[in-house]
Every structure is written in C-alpha cells, then in structure tokens.
Write a structure and sequence with these properties.
The chain is mostly beta strands. Helix content is 0%, strand content 48%.
Amino acid sequence: MAKYTYQDISGNVLPEDIQIVAEEKGELTTIDLSFRNLELNKPMSFPYKVPKGYDKITLK
C-alpha cells in the first residue's frame, strides 16, 4: 500500500510525502518519506570511493 501527497514547485508537480507500507509474513514495514526542500536543475555529485579490499562492479 502506498499513499502520496504532491506539491507544486515552479509549475512542476512533485511528491511532498510518500508513505509505503509493506507486509510480509504478517510483519509490517513502514517507510515515510518527506520532501521539504527541493531544488530543480542543480548539478549533483555523489563522490564515492570503493574501499580497499573490494572490487568495483558495473551493473548493466
């Protein structure tokens, strides 16, 4: 089950809150995401180095 609410940012409809509830074998897991500060059209980077002793893999 998932619930969504949306917000309008500069004419773009984007998620504001997302709630995901998953059930497996009678056990519930709830994930709540809230997007309070969104910036559009900004460069992003995710610097990351593979730790020593591990090999880098590329998924296709």
